[in-house]
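FORM 7B - TANDEM STRUCTURE REPORT

SECTION 1: FIRST PROTEIN
SEQUENCE AND TOKENS:
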Amino acid sequence: MRNFDLAPLYRATVGFDQIADMMDRVLSADVNHPTYPPYNIEKTADDAYRISIAVAGFAAEDLTVEVREGALIVSAKKADEDNERTYLHRGIATRAFERKFQLADHVRVEGATHADGMLHIDLVREVPEALKPRRIEIASGSQTRKDVLDHQSVN
């Protein structure tokens, strides 16, 4: 595996430290990324997304969904109630887990539903008005020249 030094990025930029931190996390992540539980991420509209996580064997009370420090954290812990059961084969995993999804700026969790062994988390991106593109009206050359002359005569 290659090691990348992101120090030049920190020295040459201001305000992009979140991107550098995210790149550092991704590049240093363990190759054996956990695969439990399986999940899908889908785009449901231009500014809407849904994360669906297979949580067979877990009740809604066993699941926790929270947003902390720009990350969506889904965790589950099931009370151990199978002490008196003896399994010949146990293929349905109900072990505790924690999944983190890094959220982009202006993405907020709209809600979560649990049905038929699936946990669905709906996300929506809300770009503030100040960050949306806006059209600048172009004045004619005579208006601009007059405004400049008026400004110079005041000063």
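SECTION 2: SECOND PROTEIN
SEQUENCE AND TOKENS:
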Amino acid sequence: MSETTTSSSRIGRIGGLVMLALAIAYGIGGSRIEYAFASDPLGPRVVPVLLAVILAVLCLFHLRRPGTTEAFPKGPLLAKIVAVPLLLLASALLLEPAGFVASIFLLTLGVGWIFGAPLRLALVGAAGQAALWWFVFAYLLDVYLPLGQLFG
């Protein structure tokens, strides 16, 4: 086995292990959902647990035969790959204090800017996305969205 194949196989297995850990965590979280006895016979647990089981089985297949993968990213590409989940985390943490609109605005602005949009277009896109999703959730779907301390 060449060095590239061994490294590629190892990276594939690391990804498979990470996804397997996420599947297990998702399954545990889904199994802890409480619901009223008189509700749907299957209850709300079935879908998340079933998805977790399917993901875990697929991860086990992937761990057995990881196939070939790209080399591990370095430099600017790695920074972009790490920045997006960090933006998602920041957006989730800002949801209550800043509100839905500000949180989505910052998320889409950051993602647009990370992937090379000029700042002016990223600002316009972020404003459009924030307004669109506020309208869809608040007015069309009638879902409560936090206004945050800035607007509420």
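SECTION 3: OBSERVATIONS ON SECOND PROTEIN
Helices lie at 3-31, 46-64, 75-98, 100-114, 119-140, 148-151.
Residues 3-31 form the longest helix (29 residues).

SECTION 4: SIGNATURE
Preparer initials: ____
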